[in-house]
Amino acid sequence: MSDNTSRSASRPILHDNCRVAVVGGGGAMGRWAVRMAAGFAFVKDLVVADLDAQRAQEICDEVGGPARPEQLDVTDQARLRQVFADCDIVLNTVGPFAVFGDRIPRTAIDCGCDDRPLLSILRSEEVF
Q1: Domain CATH number, residue 56
Q2: Distance (Å, rounded) from C-alpha 1 to C-alpha 19?
Q3: Which residues form the Saccharopine dehydrogenase NADP binding domain (predicted)?
Q4: Residue 66 is part of which domain span?
Q5: pTM listed for this prediction
Q6: CB-based contact 115:105 (threshold 8 Å)
Q7: What are the tens digits of pLDDT across the range 4-40?
Q8: Please, which residues bridge with residue 71 across strands?
Q9: How remote is the C-alpha of 31 from its chain's centroid?
Q10: Contact 5/112 with Cβ under 8 angstroms?
Q11: What strands lie across the sheet with 18-23, from one edge to the other?
């Protein structure tokens, strides 16, 4: 467990300046997640992380601020940690989940991020 765990444990998951990363944000499922996350007022920084930097840029251009693209190869553990370092929430849409599903949530947790589906976070924080 990393030192960042205390960061996420010391404040609510949802706060006024959430930094959210959508891994695979340029893909079909990821674009929907980006559109949804961009609509929440508490999301102040939306990292659209994708292997294809152009697709990440396209969805960022579509939704506007607070979205910004980051090129990310999910097989690069050091880069995953770099992208997740200051995130509060990581939404993983990269598949196939049988191949990549374990690596991304474990890294997010190690970095002190919450990796639950956003809908369950919203429900637990009584946003609805």
Answers
A1: 3.40.50.720
A2: 20
A3: 20-113
A4: 15-123
A5: 0.80
A6: yes
A7: 444 444 445 566 788 999 999 999 999 999 999 999 8
A8: 50
A9: 12
A10: yes
A11: 67-71, 43-50, 18-23, 89-92
Domain count, the chain: 1
Rounded CA-CA distance 114/96 in Å is 21
What gap in Å lies between CA 83 and CA 72, rounded to an integer? 8
* Residue at 59 is within a domain: yes
pLDDT at 2: 40
Under DSSP, the state recorded for 114 is: B
Long-range contacts of 73-81 (CB under 8 A, 24+ apart): 74/23, 74/24, 74/100, 74/103, 74/104, 75/103, 77/103, 77/107, 80/104, 80/107, 81/107, 81/110, 81/111
Whether residue 112 is contained in a domain is answered as yes
- 44: in domain: yes
Nearest CA-CA partner of 91 in 41, 29, 39? 29
**Strand pairing report for 43-50 and 67-71:** parallel
In a domain, 78, yes or no: yes
Q: What's the chain's Rg over C-alpha atoms?
A: 13
